[in-house]
Amino acid sequence: MKDKAMILVVDDSSLIRLAVSRTLVAHGYEVIVAEAGQPGLVQWESRKTDIDLVLSDVFMPGLDGFAFARELRNRRCTAPIILMSSKLTDDNRWIAEDEGFQLIPKPFKDENLLGLIRETLPA
Question: Residue 53: helix, strand or coil by DSSP?
Fold first, then answer.
């Protein structure tokens, strides 16, 4: 049994990736990052048995967050998926809820993200 949960962080903003990664590492999580959906899939394939949770932006070039999350599910990913977005609409809230993904609006406070992760990760 490993002592730290591993989180895959996928976001096209290097500032968001850095800020989120620093917060997660400071609170005892292991973090791997990807700058978009396709590289996120590569990371997933190489570390899928280690990844406990996926945290992804919704709006990214190429494979957006919804398509990325769906592809993870197609690849039998059972890890919880939390989607982040600064452009939340009723439509993407509905899509996330309908497909079983958590959604957190950007910007968010560290404690809100950490609380959602703690609630979402299996004990």
Answer: strand
Burial tier of 53 (Cβ tally within 10 Å: 0-12, 13-18, 19+): buried
> pTM for the complete prediction?
0.93
CA torsion angle 18 20 25 28 (round to 10): 180
- Sorted by where each starts, the structural domains of the chain and their CATH numbers stand as 6-120 (3.40.50.2300)
How many whole angstroms from its chain centre is CA 88?
Answer: 16
Q: Which pair of tokens denotes residue 104?
A: 């957190």
DSSP string over 6-42: EEEEE-S-HHHHHHHHHHHHHTT-EEEEESSHHHHHH
Counting every residue, how long is the chain? Answer: 123
Rounded to whole angstroms, the Cα distance separating 46 from 34 reads 12
For the record, the structure tokens of 90 come out as: 């009723």
Tens-digit pLDDT profile for residues 76-96: 999 999 999 888 777 778 788
